[in-house]
Design goal:
This protein is of the alpha+beta class. Helix content is 32%, strand content 23%. Strand 3 and strand 4 form a beta hairpin.
């Protein structure tokens, strides 16, 4: 009896032991499979990230601020980051395929091309939620795409350009008006004619009626002046794949509005239907510190040929206590000034400065160094040896009359041509003599100047190069090397061609644009080196020269013989 009971207990223990063994083996296999699955998912995610990372552009992303999801249009080439906080968490970087869709592992394919970023995010996130009910997810634009675009019309350099989807019309306009590229295309052209032609063409550009023709056939208008005045991006739309941008000429003689008096930039501006009084004042740089907002006069030409004048309180309009005034073609605005002997003025500073813009000054007191300090100082990219201060030329506004006055004295034909070019340059503004390097790097206070109303301070960007052009084998930008002379840069440019005149080399200074011989100056960053071409002379020219030389020699020889006798 006892033996049977013990035998039964042993049998039960053996069965339990087998059950425990089977349980632990099965449990271990399940854990191993789960770990293997997790590792494979992790490897797939890493492999996906690595495959996408090879498609990322090497250049930095260019944009003027955070992307507006309701403005940005998704297209082929955009790269998105997908994060799913599940167990385990997942991360993918997925591109929009050439067909216009994104393929998200474990979720599926969604067509996004042509949708706004806002709608695309909502669509993808809703699809992720169907697969992963619990947990959060994100679908974020990681790298914007690049595409080709064309521009034509009144620009210096027509043609196609590669832009990013975060860039706007004004960025393309700046690329198409790059004067360095234009100069390289016209390298054989006379320098003075080239400058005059480039400035003439730029002055004819309409910045308010730029047409952007979309691939779907719709057309939008860009108004860069109004965008800068209002900061409303509707006037400066984002570029899209396949856009054709057409820049028409400005027709200020037909469509114009004028603003004068106490504004930062008085003058005549191109008129566009819908312009208001406050818009015009903003385009003109706003009211100056000594403007009288109560004393603003609107002059308008009436259909009967008469003129009407209306006094406007701009302060009330700016405060939005009274409605704005819609302008008409030909309107002129005169902004009065506060009659105060303590008024100062306004100067502007632009370029590589921390806080560019307009700054009020105190008459006969505000210095150049004080304005630079108020503007936050220079950026690391400032090229001080090319910086300059321009002052409005009140005496040379009418260049024709000034030209006639200055020609009252006797001048040769060469002097007349030189004087004409100087007058053209002077009407752009008088160059104020100073030295930014001496003042700000060497702390030479003697180079500081007192600013006047309307002065413009221009701080160009570093180019880290010297431009060699003319009769050299490989003209173009040569990396700047401190202390090197003109021969170093000419050799780097391949040397002078057989038609070059090495005795007539000139250095064009980056700031003053003065033409100097190499012995008169040292090479600085941003300077130009010009090697002229030896002029073509016909055989008759040399025959005449030699005949005159031999004639003089013969005369001298005859005199010597007569005197010796």
């Amino acid at each position: 009896m006892i033996y049977n009971i013990l035998n039964d207990n042993i049998t039960i223990m053996k069965r339990l032991t087998r059950l425990f063994y089977i349980f632990f083996v099965t449990f271990g296999i399940c854990i191993a499979q789960l770990n293997d699955r997790t590792d494979r998912q992790s490897n797939q995610s890493q492999s996906s990230s690595q495959s996408i990372s090879t498609q990322l552009p090497s250049g930095k992303i260019i944009q003027d601020g955070p992307v507006d999801p309701k403005e940005y249009i998704v297209g082929p080439g955009d790269i998105f980051s997908v994060n799913i906080w599940a167990t385990p968490p997942l991360n993918f970087q997925v591109p929009v395929t050439p067909e216009g869709s994104v393929v998200i592992p474990t979720v599926g394919e969604n067509f996004l091309s042509g949708m706004t970023l806002y709608d695309a995010k909502n669509l993808v996130l809703s699809e992720i939620k169907k697969k992963y009910i619990t947990g959060n997810a994100s679908f974020t634009l990681y790298v914007p795409r690049q595409f080709n675009i064309s521009i034509s019309g009144m620009v210096l350099n027509e043609g196609g350009y590669i832009v990013q989807a975060t860039q706007r019309v004004d960025a393309l306009l700046q690329l198409a008006n790059d004067i360095v590229v234009y100069k390289e295309k016209n390298i054989t052209q006379d320098y003075s004619k080239f400058e005059e032609e480039a400035e003439s063409k730029l002055s004819l550009i309409s910045r308010r009626r730029i047409k952007v023709i979309r691939r779907n056939g719709t057309t939008v208008t860009a108004d860069i002046e109004k965008f800068h005045a209002t900061q409303n991006s509707i006037y400066n739309p984002l570029l899209r794949d396949g856009d054709v941008v057409i820049v028409p000429p400005a027709n200020i003689g037909k469509d114009f509005i004028g603003v004068y008096g106490a504004v930062a930039k008085e003058g005549v501006y191109e008129f566009v239907t819908g312009d208001s009084l406050t818009t015009l004042l903003a385009i003109a740089g706003g009211l100056t510190a000594y403007a009288d907002p109560v004393n603003v006069i609107l002059t308008r030409n009436m259909p009967d040929g008469q003129q009407s004048e209306k006094r406007v309180n701009v302060g009330e309009i700016i405060a939005k206590r009274v409605p704005d005034i819609i302008l008409q073609n030909g309107d002129r605005i005169i902004v009065g000034r506060v009659n105060s002997i303590n008024r100062g003025g306004i100067v502007s500073i632009e370029g590589e400065i921390v806080r560019p813009g307009f700054y009020p000054i105190v008459q006969d007191s505000s210095s150049l160094s004080s304005i630079v300090e108020r503007a936050g100082g220079f950026t690391p990219f400032a090229l001080l040896n090319a910086a300059k201060v321009l002052r409005p030329s009140t005496e040379l506004n009418n260049k024709t009359i000034t030209y006639q006055y200055l020609r009252k004295g006797y001048t040769t034909s060469e002097d007349t041509a030189y004087l004409h070019n100087e007058i053209l340059l002077k009407t752009k503004g008088d160059l104020v003599s100073t030295d930014f390097v001496e003042l700000f790097e060497k702390k030479n206070k003697e180079k500081d100047i007192i600013l006047r109303d309307g002065d413009k301070i221009i701080i160009p960007a570093r180019v880290n190069a010297v431009y060699v052009f003319g009769e050299v084998k490989n003209p173009g930008h040569i990396p700047y090397a401190a202390g090197k002379d003109v021969n170093y840069y000419i050799q780097r440019a391949g040397g002078i061609t057989e038609h070059g005149q090495d005795g007539e080399i000139r250095i064009v200074k980056s700031s003053s644009k003065q033409w100097l011989v190499p012995s008169e100056t040292s090479i600085e960053e941003g300077d130009y080196i010009w090697i002229p071409k030896e002029p073509f002379r016909p055989f008759t020219y040399y025959l005449t020269v030699y005949s005159q030389v031999f004639g003089i020699i013969g005369t001298i020889a005859t005199l010597i013989l007569l005197m010796s006798r």
